[in-house]
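One-letter codes give the sequence; each number marks local geometry. A record appears below:


***
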Amino acid sequence: MGTAEKTRSLTADEFLARDQREFGDAWRYELVDGRVLAHAAPTPAHGAIVAGLSAALGARLRGHAEGCRPEAGSGAAPASRQRSTARIPDAMVRCGELPRIAFEVVSASELKAWRERDRKRLDLQEVEGVQEIVEVYQDEMAAHVYRKTADGSWAFEALGGPDAALKLASVGLEIPLAEIYEFAPLGGPSRGEEA
């Protein structure tokens, strides 16, 4: 990218059409208010959670009546903004042309940066078609689910522990948290060991 390009704000359409390697060597990029932001590579726990989630979604969405499919690393741009923001969730469920569920794996450092995490969630809530946003926690078997209600507001649900199940109402699926975290190296004793 040339010097003039680095200072010019991009639209979401321009950002999503670009080969991300043009922005540099970071693992992933997002566009926020016209500025390209780089993200570091995920930790092994983050990667294991995304892999477990993707495998669980793929197995359950095969042959889905609405043609829904899992995706990883796809862009999602808010519809109501000036189109200068494009988020890249860790995983997504897309039904037809529109994303329906966005998944974010939340690390300890992201917990500390709550304003940025809240802004990202608000941006994802503005993406056309998104009905559920799921934040999966990297260091413990827990998730926060935000669901769009009939009146357009967002309801909140917290769940956690090996017996909890993630209910994805917008696509009619249920996934045990234990399945998502099956290969994730969480803190404390490994599975099967007593504390």
Notes: The radius of gyration is 17 Å. The chain has a mean pLDDT of 84.
